[in-house]
Amino acid sequence: MGAPKYVLLSYDGEAEFEGEEGYEETWALCQDAEALFADPPPPLRDVHELLGCVPQGRLSEALTRARAEGSAPLGTLTLQILDKTGATVGEWHLEEARLLGDRPCAQDLTLRDVTIEGTQPDHNLYDHPRRPPLSPGYRLLGADGEPHGTCRDLACVREVPDETMESPLRLLGCSPQGALRTALDAGEEDLGHAKVLRIDTSGRPLQSAAEGDLRAWIPSARGPGLVDLTLDLWSERPPFAAGEVWELWTEGRPTEPNRWARCDNEGRQFWLRTARVNHVHGGQDRPPDTTYHLDGRHITDMAGFFCALGEAVNGPGGYFGWGMDALDDCLTGRWGATPPLSLVWHDSEVARRCLGVTSQTLHRPPDFEELLAYLAEGDRVDVHLA
Length: 386
Known about the structure:
Blueprint: E1 6-10, H1 13-17, E2 26-34, E3 46-55, H2 57-69, E4 72-82, E5 88-104, E6 112-119, E7 138-141, E8 147-156, E9 169-176, H3 178-186, E10 193-199, E11 205-219, E12 227-233, H4 240-248, H5 265-277, E13 291-295, H6 302-314, H7 324-330, E14 341-346, H8 348-354, H9 368-376, E15 381-385
Parallel strand pairs: 13-14, 14-15
Antiparallel strand pairs: 1-2, 1-10, 2-9, 3-6, 3-8, 4-5, 4-7, 5-6, 7-8, 9-12, 10-11, 11-12
């Protein structure tokens, strides 16, 4: 029989919300899981029409390019919602917008109806803005507030896709115990809410994997007395990168440095999540002016920088931020180091060549020089390149 990879716990949402401890009961150790991982779908690309448009600036330039090439990038587009006096009463945004085409406006042949697609950011207050009564329409702006013209109205022309049915999670080779064993023996159909944790070979929890409703079981082919359990999930599934990272942590927190370097960017990002939840709080921070050595041989992206930084401060598998805001938090204390600190960055030329190199026009990660400037703000980190 294989060593268990997952532990199934009872789940009480109210107790968890209230911060209670010790309410979870172990229901089963499980050898493996099926249909656990799934990468999140890409953001929906909404398609809209800017009706009665007077294009200016970059929007006008994109129209010319789209007529020649079929479409053209536009970047961030902001629609300022105007009231009947022409005053701004709200904003609505599209990111990574692309102009798909245009045609004469049926109501006014001097104007254009422009078709665009883009991704809505999370901070939009509504899915689709509504033009106020008697409003002249919308003022169009670019990423830096530069004018792109105006339009009289906005129409959404994207059809909402049907939701796809997700496969339930199956836990394989489970040894039921406690209340779950009692429920199975009694033939109960309502087995309750459950939480799945990934564990290491010593049985210590590594990270939460899923939450859902236990709805079915069958005898397992993996051994006598074992069962296969089916869960309907209400949580998001961990990405496929989680499986790779958990295998690297299968014997617990790594003892050798740079194991994260085997991962691609998605794997490195999940490594940082795993390192964070396994960070041991309560230890004493090292004093100010301590020197840390950053192994830069594998820093080919920002996730790699933070993986290496976590290990420089807190050892293999260590955590010291997963992004700029998190780094700011770590530099306030309680995460292993006290600023000001010295950071000796070995093989820094790797990062100089790689950081900030991206085809994206939005949300570009900092390049090497920008990162150095950020670290130096407020004399928090004195970086020595080696």
